[in-house]
Amino acid sequence: MFKVGLTGGIGSGKTTVAELFAAKGVPVLDADRVARDLVEPGQPALAAIAGRFGPDILKAGCLDRERLRRIVFADPAERRWLEALLHPRVYAELERRMAALATPYCLLVVPLLLETGRRGLVDRLLVVDCPVGLQRQRLQTRDGIDAAQANRMLSAQIDRPQRQAAADDILENTGTVADLAGPVERLHRLYLALASDSRPGNAAPPP
User: Fold this and answer.
1) What per-residue confidence (pLDDT) applies to 43?
2) Of 146, 189, 166, 148, which Cα lies nearest the Cα of 9?
3) How confident is the model over 178-206, as a mean pLDDT?
4) CA of residue 41 relative to chain centroid, distance
5) Is 122 a residue whose pLDDT tops 90?
6) What are phi and psi of 20, to 5 degrees?
7) Where are the domains of the chain?
């Protein structure tokens, strides 16, 4: 199965783009959703987090995500610890879920795909892009945080030029959802064609 990775800076609109692909029947596997599943009550990862940060990291037995976010974005060492705990589990679960699919292609939404050095997981990389100032504005509005906290979150990811350089496709997201419909349709057709070409027996003959 052909695998398209979708990534982009925080606040760039990855979820919106993924929903447009999903509406076309494309399976979407979201690393953030997998990570949330892994820290549900009773999961080993949640026990490890509570052991690291203490019982106050839980609220009614569930992970206090806002408290954890404040901690890890204020302390790079704690963020690295959390990533070392979750990232291998997230990628293993993504692989497991991909193996169960039988579609021409799937979309893997992985915000830190490049930061974790996993570009080789996918056959093609789509980057959702917008100016950093717009990312910051969206992030502050979405999460109700101040500019300083937004900047700390933005600085935890690679910069915009690096993402653009790694991309096979770039989808600019500076307007409305309606503005994305045409570009997503064109990309969907492209990925279907690439998926067809990548099937065994469909390779181009050698020159």
Assistant:
1) 96
2) 166
3) 84
4) 23
5) yes
6) -70, -40
7) 1-27+105-197, 33-100
Report the pLDDT value the prediction gives residue 199, as an integer from 0 to 100. 75
Kindly tell me if the per-residue pLDDT of 207 is higher than 60: no
Question: What are the tens digits of pLDDT across the range 157-181?
Answer: 999 999 999 999 999 999 999 999 9
> The tokens 């020159």 sit on which residue?
207
Binding site members: 11-16
CATH of domain 1-27+105-197: 3.40.50.300
Q: CA-CA distance, 31 to 36, in Å (whole number)?
A: 9
The one-letter code for the residue type at 14 is K
Instruction: Spell out the residues 6+ positions from residue 207 whose beta carbon is closer than 8 angstroms to its own.
Output: none
Contact 119, 113 (CB under 8 A): yes
Q: What's the mean pLDDT in 49-69? A: 95
Residue numbers in the known binding site for ATP are: 11-16
Distance CA 80, CA 147 (A): 23
